[in-house]
Amino acid sequence: MTERHKDRPWLMRTYAGHSTAEASNALYRRNLAKGQTGLSVAFDLPTQTGYDPDHVLARGEVGRVGVPVSHLGDMRRLFQDIPLEQMNTSMTINATAMWLLAMYQVVAEEQGLGPEAVDRLSGTTQNDIVKEYLSRGTHVFPPGPSLRLTTDLITYSVNHIPKWNPINICSYHLQEAGATPVQEIAYAMSTAIAVLDAVRDSGQVPAERFGDVVARISFFVNAGVRFVEEMCKMRAFGRIWDQITRERYGVDNPKQRRFRYGVQVNSLGLTEAQPENNVQRIVLEMLAVTLSKDARARAVQLPAWNEALGLPRPWDQQWSLRIQQVLAHESDLLEYPDIFDGSHVIEAKVAELTAASLAEIDRIQEMGGAMAAVESGYLKSQLVASHAERRARIEAGEERIVGVNCYESTEPNPLTADLDTAIMTVDPANEARVVAALHRWRDERDEPRAQEALSALKAAAAGSTNLMPATLECVRAGVTTGEWAWALRDVFGEYRAPTGVSGAPLAVAAEPGSALGAVRDKVAKTAADLGVGKLRLLVGKPGLDGHSNGAEQIAVRARDAGFEVIYQGIRLTPAQIVAAAVAEDVHCVGLSILSGSHAELVPDVLARLREAGAASAAGADGPAEAPIPVIVGGIIPSADATALRAAGVAAVFTPKDFGITEIIGRIVDEIRTANQLDPLEATA
């Protein structure tokens, strides 16, 4: 038997980082020893949003969802004994992407590459700010300055680090925010057009080298469990990218027009209920981006089975890596050409997705492009509406999720018999150690040089020069992440993106006899009992967690149930949330936290409400001075949920509580309990 040629496998990564640079470095070296072929760095939220660990908004967030990197010393420790010239490193970093790449470059120079040899570095910075405005929430600066930072990083990389992918246009979080396949393609491609137009118009790359820019544009996508449609989506992505780069930008070289992408399969689709089912979900989702050779991912990272429960352990991440290795090395997948070529069914679906996506791209271009569609709120409101429609289908049982809304009976799960050990936890004392180390770094650096570098950065930002050289000098001078970002905030300002809530259409009808209709009646009856026109609900996002999908869906459904909803978006301190609750005279405060900072931030909100003597608004006929109930939703381990309830939280909701209408009904019940009103009949 003649042995078949076998294609080279994709890069295999694990999205990882936690606690400290030292702990993350040890994890990376262990993963590489297990056969991982690339690194994917998860940074903590203060690093992603340009805050030092000692800032008030960083409280409870340091080292939670990734590694804290506050300065060059942290970056050195993160990659100690890892030769960067041999690595392909992906950094999920956006608003502060320039800063992190500058630190990475300087560490590579210190490892012996030298300033002239960094052109051997390979890897990716995500550097896609549009999807941060729409879904992930780690944006800092307004759209214009953000696009400038993106452009400067791309042009610098093309000229100085030619093997680096300076942008990873990311549709991953769009799908998790509710995007349909058509929206995912169209919004990502519209972002690519905005970026390429800005690079072209900047004049920093000669026209004859523009193909080199296009060749370094990469994408990062999501793959859901509908893996046939998802595979067709990837083929449509490639077809549209080839058309845009050829027709709009005149790139003749087919290699430069190649659609290059990495993937992480869907994480928010993983379930807390029967989490063992997540393993087969992950496998099916991986098939979407590996089965079709012509649309195969260049790099794959898989979530762990228990991510809906909390932070995965190293063993859980190893399981996900082994899934990739078994498919690549034990199966015959890599021995064949594209097995879908010639399929009329696949071609029809690809053509359908392509046509619909091109139509939506044209619609966005008519609005003035992606940035204009962000600022107008169009893109965000479309995502919120799509997500609301999907949630409604799940609640109605039209979209079935095994273990959640069907086949719910189960045997005891040995994997989760002890929930407290089924996930990894970050030592609460870690944050204080990181802050102390930051203070030592500031005390020991050359302060005049650091201040001079920051002044030069501000001057460059106020002008039109490329910001990467000034950023590199800030790195070498010992400037911190927060100082770099605040220098640019001083020049560019900050930005609060549209929430999309007010423009979202009705997703669930409140017809008589329906579940929402019954809740709407409860809302109206409770408002009447309290002698107020409407019940008022404040939905708050304390800390730096920018994943606002859940908060937005609660806000939309509460609005549709008859509440007056106060939702000010992401990134609020406990003091700001309490001030808004008092000023708006609300009847309930709902907090949404997915980053793990609930143990720090929720008790702070409770304490401040008590200090403020906050009471729900009561009419002339209602009881006076009733406490405002606080409810919390997020990825919250059971032990933490128990502690929060003991601290005074009225109710805790986690991903297993998928019924949004039922949650709204519970909120009404908690308002009635707090105001000593008789309970009403439970809703269906």
From TrEMBL:
Keywords, comma-separated and alphabetical: Cobalamin, Cobalt, Isomerase, Metal-binding
Necessary cofactors: adenosylcob(III)alamin
Protein name: Protein meaA
InterPro entries: Acid_CoA_mut_C, Cbl-dep_enz_cat, Cobalamin-bd, Cobalamin-bd_sf, MeMalonylCoA_mutase_a/b_cat, MMCoA_mutase_a_cat
Domain B12-binding intervals: 534-674
Assembly with partners or alone: Heterodimer of an alpha and a beta chain.
A GO molecular-function annotation: cobalamin binding
SUPFAM superfamilies: Cobalamin (vitamin B12)-binding domain, Cobalamin (vitamin B12)-dependent enzymes
Family: Belongs to the methylmalonyl-CoA mutase family.
